[in-house]
Write a structure and sequence with these properties.
By secondary structure, the protein is mainly β. It contains two helices and six strands; from the N terminus they run E-E-E-E-E-H-H-E. The radius of gyration is 12 Å and the shape is globular.
């Protein structure tokens, strides 16, 4: 598992597998205005996007994320 943070977009992404290839996400599900789940063609959860991460995730957690 890897977690990245894009400061410009204020978005965090939790990779539930080592690498997500381009086009591998086949469907998404919005849980609310901040959480989006990404699924592969087998309907397996492969990633979680957190929008407005600096307001949703504790600041100490954001600081420890890999910046992209």
């Amino acid at each position: 598992m890897k977690i990245t943070y894009d400061k410009d977009a204020d978005a965090a992404y939790i990779y539930l597998k080592e690498k997500i290839e381009k086009g591998e996400v086949k469907s998404t599900l919005s849980m609310n205005e901040n959480i989006i789940l990404d699924f592969d063609s087998n309907k397996k959860l492969i990633g979680i996007e957190i929008l407005s991460a600096s307001t949703v995730v504790p600041k100490t957690a954001v600081k420890s994320m890999e910046t992209v």
